[in-house]
Amino acid sequence: MKQIERIEVMEERLNRVRAAADALEAALDGYEAAKGDLAKLERYYTGKLWRKDYEDREAGKIPEEILCGVLSEDAVYDLLTDTDALKKRMNKLGKKTKA
Questions:
Q1: 96 three-state secondary structure
Q2: What is the tens place of the pLDDT at every residue in 15-57?
Q3: Distance between alpha carbon 47 and the CA centroid of its chain, in Å?
Q4: In this predicted model, what pLDDT tens digit does every residue of 63-90 receive, in sequence order?
């Protein structure tokens, strides 16, 4: 690879990695801000109130126009599973020493 080509390729790499690092930092900031909500959501989902709300929705006691995605049996579980997988992935990436 010639010098000019090498510099151009490395410049592209620098810009691509910088953009990815900036996007990751912004995503982590957003996740960190929402982390408390995730903990509250997990407590709700695993507690008695979720079951009551779910049963009331099924019994028609909650108006149909009220958004109740949180009462689906998969939405919260899937979110908890996904966030756990992301934590494991970040830990694995953090342990890698070579770029």
A1: coil
A2: 999 999 999 999 999 999 999 999 999 999 999 999 999 999 9
A3: 22
A4: 999 999 999 989 999 999 999 999 999 9
Rg (CA), the chain: 22
Q: Cα dist. 37→5, 16, 65, 70, 75 in Å?
A: 48, 32, 24, 13, 15
CB contact at 8 A, 75 and 69? yes
Every domain of the chain and the residues it spans: 3-95
Residue 9 · residue 1 · CB < 8 Å: yes
DSSP state of 71: G
Q: How far apart are the first and last CA of the chain?
A: 21
pTM of the predicted protein model: 0.77
**Number of residues written out for the chain:** 99
3 token code pair: 């010098």
